[in-house]
Amino acid sequence: MQEGLGAWQLVVSGDPGLYGIVGLSLAISLSAVALAALVGLPLGGLLALTRFPGRGAVIVLANALMGLPPVVVGLVVYLLLSRSGPLGSFGLLFTPTAMVIAQAILITPIIAALTRQTVEDLWLEYRDEMNAMGVSPLGRLATLLYDARVSLITTLLAGFGRAAAEVGAVMIVGGNIDGFTRTMTTAIALETSKGDLPLAMGLGFVLVSIVLAVNASAWGLRLFAQKRIG
Can you say whether residue 51 is alpha, beta or left, with left for phi > 0 and alpha for psi between -120 and 50 degrees? Predict the structure, then answer.
């Protein structure tokens, strides 16, 4: 009971330590979503609109990578960015940039796979019209991505939710450095092990609130889209 009260006081009082961690977490997750969207949206659209040998295997792989273990991603990125790794000269390990890269790798398959399904469904609906109008492949991709924008925003929100709740990969590549790479999830794990339950619970309250807000936004967008279609 006392821990819960202390956690609530940290949240409502605007504790700088707590909200510094929250701000860093949001900045990293939003950056990762933006990077993943730059890759995942066009990749998913291309998979939906093109036919090539092995396409089915690529789709299966993209769907399988949606469940990619975070610790494996963290390990791979760590090896790439370590001093002995191919990208070690950039000095990115144990920085927010490394955490963005790890989260982006995790959520790119989610965005790509969901985008492919959304665009493919629209393509089946508009294929005859676009073929009759002679729309170019690039024009088809741009048109369908724009037409599916509400569904794709929901996809991006799903990616953000996955990124914000991730702990394994960012712990490995970020190092959980106080004031530099400590996010909500890594801080909760650390403070719980130290016995500082008010801070851990306060961060937990904020994290759950963010996840609920993301899911509520996704649900609201779906309702909005359904009303427009109806």
Answer: beta
- Give per-residue pLDDT as tens, 161-201: 889 888 889 999 999 898 899 999 999 988 888 887 888 88
Q: Who's near 201: CB < 8 A, 6+ residues apart?
A: 3, 4, 6, 7
pTM: 0.89
Give the helix, strand, coil percentages of the chain, each rounded to 5.
80, 0, 20
Distances 184 to 2, 51, 72 between C-alpha atoms, Å: 21, 42, 20
Structural domains of the chain ordered from first start: 18-229 (1.10.3720.10)
Q: What is the pLDDT of residues 91-101, one digit of tens each?
A: 999 999 999 99
204 Cβ contact partners less than 8 Å away, ≥ 6 residues apart: 7, 188
